[in-house]
Design brief:
It is a single chain. It contains eleven helices and ten strands. Strands 4-9-8-5-7 form a five-stranded parallel sheet. The chain has a three-stranded antiparallel sheet with strand order 1-3-2. The longest helix is centred in the first third of the chain and has 19 residues. The protein is globular, with a radius of gyration of 19 Å. The chain is α/β, with parallel strands linked by helices. Helix 3 crosses helix 4. The termini are far apart. The chain folds into two domains: about 80 residues, Orthogonal Bundle (Arc Repressor Mutant, subunit A); about 120 residues, Rhodanese-like domain (Oxidized Rhodanese, domain 1, 3-Layer(aba) Sandwich).
């Protein structure tokens, strides 16, 4: 094979994979699957899409070898083919933060309205976790928490936080986290906590970022 043909083929293969991700809905699906496998129905509900559209996007990702299928009875479960897929999404996201000023403004404006502008980076949280006055609060659904979470975190899914907030001690400082910078669960949790007089911040990143850094994690066996 001539070197020009080799180069063209190599770049074409990579371009096809990148093209499969070059869609906002498919990027959100990759982000969701970074939390663990999901059925088509679960993805559709989370991403606010029809099941038909969700299936089409999943097929594109599957053809690019970015997701794979596991069948269980009448349900089809999708998951990322490799941890590198999640890592590539995180790197793309970080590139957007560094190169797109509009991205930074978008996040700042969103968080200003929810009193969650001051976000804590992972390295600072790791240092401050030694304090007994700090509570790390995972506000993702219980299934995601069980699949993996920051070591020592407690799980109160966002939808149940309002009902349990009166049982939380007010002499603690809370750091809420969820799926990542584009996940708003943590922002909404911080808004609720601060409104009720708690001292709270959100983690700048999410659990997949924490795990990818090799920081302490736990799982709960089903």
């Amino acid at each position: 094979m001539e070197k020009r043909i080799f180069k063209d083929k190599a770049y074409s293969l990579l371009a096809a994979m990148i093209k499969a991700m070059a869609n906002p809905h498919r990027l959100e699906i990759v982000d969701l699957l970074g939390q663990g496998e999901r059925t088509v129905e679960e993805i559709a509900e989370e991403a606010n899409m029809s099941i038909a559209n969700t299936s089409q996007h999943l097929q594109v990702l599957k053809q690019a070898n970015l997701v794979e299928v596991r069948r269980e009875g009448n349900y089809i479960h999708y998951r990322l083919t490799h941890e590198e897929v999640s890592k590539s999404w995180q790197m793309l996201r970080e590139l957007g933060f560094s190169q797109l000023s509009e991205m930074e403004r978008l996040i700042r404006d969103f968080r200003e309205k929810r009193n969650s502008l001051e976000a804590l980076p992972m390295d600072e949280l790791l240092t401050r976790m030694r304090s007994r006055n700090l509570v790390v609060l995972d506000v993702r659904p219980a299934k995601e928490f069980n699949n993996g979470h920051i070591r020592g975190a407690i799980n109160i899914p966002l939808e149940g936080l309002a009902a349990k907030i009166n049982h939380l001690p007010k002499n603690k400082e809370y750091v809420a986290y969820c799926r990542g910078p584009f996940c708003v669960f943590a922002d909404e949790a911080v808004a609720l906590l601060t409104k009720r007089g708690f001292k709270a911040k959100r983690l700048m990143e999410g659990f997949p970022d924490w795990k990818m850094k090799g920081l302490p994690v736990e799982t709960i066996e089903s």
